[in-house]
Amino acid sequence: MVAEPDWPATEIGGEAHHNAFTDLLEYKGYVYCSFREGSGHVPGSNGVGKILRTRDGRVWEAFTILQKKGIDLRDQKLSVMPDGRMLCLMGGSVYDTTQKPSKLLGMYPQVAFMGAGMQFTAPEKAVIENAGNNWIWRLTWYKGAGYGIDYGNGTTIWLVKTTDGITFKKIAALDIGGAPNESTIRFDAGGKMYILVRREQGDKMGVLATGIAPFTNFGYHKLDYRLGGPDFIFSPDGRKLLIGTRLYLPAGAKTGILVTDLNGKQIKKLILESGGDCSYPGLLIKNKQLWVSYYSSHTGKAAVYFTKIPLEHLLQ
Questions:
Q1: What number is the average pLDDT over the span 64-77?
Q2: What is the distance between the alpha carbons of residues 49 and 77, in angstroms, rounded to a whole number?
Q3: pLDDT number for residue 4
Q4: Is the whole-model pTM more than 0.85?
Q5: How far, in Å, CA of 203 to CA of 312, rounded?
Q6: Cβ distance 291 to 308 under 8 Å?
Q7: What is the predicted pLDDT for the residue at 1?
Q8: Which InterPro entries match (predicted)?
Q9: Is it true that the peptide bond before 123 is cis, omega within 30 degrees of 0?
């Protein structure tokens, strides 16, 4: 049995063979959607970062493309720095393409900045304390600092911190087993840090970690569902989490929105029009709606989709 979608969406990005790994950000009158254009989930050729923008969510225009020779740019994540510039944080994979399939040689996060001129700088390599293979998946800014999770070594994830968007210091290792990786950080109104963590070994159930400043000790709450490419934000009243993630259903993968309590317990589930290789949503609240970007391959190839969901539909 195929799980029918509860909510439709519109394709906004499908020019490349594989269009994936999205994010959303509102900035100076526009909403920006970033994603990767490539030849496949893992490349035969290196991917580039594409950014679209819209004023109303109906008409989207191409804004820019970020690329760097010899680097597969992935997981483009957007944020606004304390000085007002937009930052695009990207994973940077280097492959030996002479081997089939391509062999991953290293992972080096890349950053690009956009200021008053409304043009991005060229991507440059981030400077990370005790660097090795690094992957900082998303940045969230709080009180002048950006926080993210580095999961590059495959076994331990680290909370990292930056004040300039390019130099990162390791703050604390998180005590989470099961191959933790893609993680999103948010802060509640009181400054408590919430970290939603995907796991890919053991029971593979997600984890919600929480901690308070100086963010060196955390509590952990095991969820009863898997995560894939997770993003989340708080409901306007701060009492619920709105989680965008891959849903691992008996009929196959879908992209969905979960409404949960502050411990991640599910209250409501909404399946978006999606299937196959999918997920990696971006979320924001605008005009009493949840705006959602994500990618899906339910029509035959991986393309980027967008939808708006009234908050009253999710939270009633």
A1: 97
A2: 10
A3: 60
A4: yes
A5: 34
A6: yes
A7: 40
A8: Sialidase_sf (IPR036278)
A9: no
